């Protein structure tokens, strides 16, 4: 059966090198490469670890965080703590108080930060001071909101010396975090506690409602 004129022309076109055929083939290959590249980028984005806020340096407890203390770094979901802070929370984190001592590279989560609203609710106009207790194992027995007195032992005396009264517990350590607690109290007493901590071990006595049962 004789072939049609169209079939003959088509065969001659494919069997004869030409500029048009080369251009069509090149465009087809270019399109295919673009599609493959787009699929590769999409797969890369899909498997990229999300960015979270981490500390750029070691930061003591009770420090007001500056933006320079924060940076974004990718972390696998499996290695992130619960409540890890993302890029959208950087502005809120900047200016917040660090509740426990932080290390460079540490991922921040909501439990690390203390806002001014909490401080004012516990001790209006108060100042915060971190305190490492003489017996760190007692720290987990405290709860935020406790009213405590800060005491130290006098040399050669059985009676303890009261360094500050009416302090409010802002945060207590959890897990493997620093054993320091964070107290809110007036500025004069905060300075007295900080100075006393340099001279001798300190302890706290719960004096608020929880102490009375």
Task: Explain what you see.
InterPro entries: SAF. Pfam families: SAF. Residues 50-114 form the SAF domain. There is one protein chain. With 213 residues, this protein is an alpha+beta fold. It has three domains: 5-47; 51-114, Type Iii Antifreeze Protein Isoform Hplc 12 (Alpha-Beta Complex); 125-212. Helix content is 30%, strand content 23%. The protein is built from five helices and nine strands. The chain has helices at residues 5-15, 19-47, 90-93, 116-122, 187-199, and strands spanning 51-55, 70-74, 97-98, 113-114, 127-132, 147-153, 160-171, 180-185, 203-206. Strands 5-8-7-6-9 form a five-stranded antiparallel sheet. Strand 6 (147-153) and strand 7 form a beta hairpin. The N and C termini lie far apart (107 Å). The relative contact order is 0.12. The model has no long low-confidence stretch (mean pLDDT 79).
Helix-strand blueprint:
Elements: H1 5-15, H2 19-47, E1 51-55, E2 70-74, H3 90-93, E3 97-98, E4 113-114, H4 116-122, E5 127-132, E6 147-153, E7 160-171, E8 180-185, H5 187-199, E9 203-206
Number of helices: 5
Q: Would you identify the regions where 5 or more consecutive residues have pLDDT less than 50?
A: none
Average pLDDT, all residues: 79
Content of β-strand: 15-25%
**What Rg do the Cα atoms give?**
32 Å
- Report on the biggest sheet: 5 strands, antiparallel
Instruction: Give the termini separation.
Output: 107 Å
- Run of helices and strands: HHEEHEEHEEEEHE
**Integer count of domains:** 3
Number of strands: 9
Structural class: alpha+beta
Biggest sheet: strand arrangement: 5-8-7-6-9
Task: Give helix % range.
Answer: 25-40%
Name the shape in a single word.
rod-shaped
Organism: Corynebacterium uropygiale
Domain SAF: 50-114
InterPro entries: SAF
Protein name: SAF domain-containing protein
């Amino acid at each position: 059966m004789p072939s049609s004129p169209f079939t003959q022309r088509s065969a001659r076109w494919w069997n004869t090198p030409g500029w048009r055929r080369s251009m069509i083939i090149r465009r087809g290959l270019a399109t295919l490469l673009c599609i493959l590249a787009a699929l590769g980028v999409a797969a890369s984005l899909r498997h990229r670890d999300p960015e979270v806020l981490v500390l750029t340096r070691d930061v003591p407890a009770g420090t007001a965080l500056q933006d320079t203390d924060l940076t974004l770094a990718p972390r696998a979901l499996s290695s992130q703590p619960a409540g890890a802070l993302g890029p959208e929370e950087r502005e809120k984190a900047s200016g917040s108080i660090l509740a426990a001592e932080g290390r460079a590279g540490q991922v921040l989560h909501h439990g690390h930060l203390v806002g001014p609203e909490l401080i004012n609710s516990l001790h209006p106009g108060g100042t915060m001071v971190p305190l490492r207790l003489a017996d760190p194992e007692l720290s987990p027995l405290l709860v935020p909101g406790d009213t405590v007195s800060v005491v130290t032992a006098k040399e050669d005396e059985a009676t303890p010396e009261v360094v500050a009264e009416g302090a409010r517990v802002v945060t207590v350590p959890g897990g493997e975090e620093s054993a320091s607690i964070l107290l809110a109290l007036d500025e004069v007493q905060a300075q007295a506690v900080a100075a006393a901590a340099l001279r001798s071990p300190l302890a706290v006595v719960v004096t608020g409602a929880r102490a009375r049962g």
